[in-house]
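Next up, sample data:
>
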Amino acid sequence: MRRLSLAPLATTMVAAAALSGCIPATRPEAAPPVRHTPRPAPQPPAPRPVLGSDWRDWPLTPGDWRYRRTAQGSTAVFGTAGVTRLALTCDPRTRQIRLDRPASVAGSITVRTSSTTKILTARAVATGAEILLPAADPLLDAMAFSRGRFTMEQAGQVPLVIPAYAEIGRVIEDCRG
């Protein structure tokens, strides 16, 4: 049996290691200086484009419903943290429901549900526009029982596409009770 000598291999490896120490280290290139340019001021979000001609396919307006009882009745508010998009408030003394649309203007507002379309006249208030409806108005039932959503549209405003959740029905029942 023949034995292989590892001496030539070891010598080659030692020589390669020694020679690698002779190669000058490369210097990293200097990074280009950082230039600070002022950021542009944040712009308000552009109105959401309405996709398609069928309102039932439009994306829902971001937000959620919150219900609360008050000493004067009850309220259901739709919106996101700190931004109210729509509020329904019951006044049990007059048996009326007030629809408030903050940041809106007085004029015609079209409400579309899966069963009806109605044009209402909103009046200007300090916070935007409001509509008063008798608690027995069938439009309120149509909003509460619309198939998944209803809309509130007004010229010059981004349409609201509101989910038809139980909070709407609770305010209506509080006012009719």
User: Anything to note?
Assistant: Residues 56 and 161 are 9 Å apart (CA to CA). The chain has a mean pLDDT of 83. The two ends are 107 Å apart (CA to CA). The longest strand covers residues 83-91.
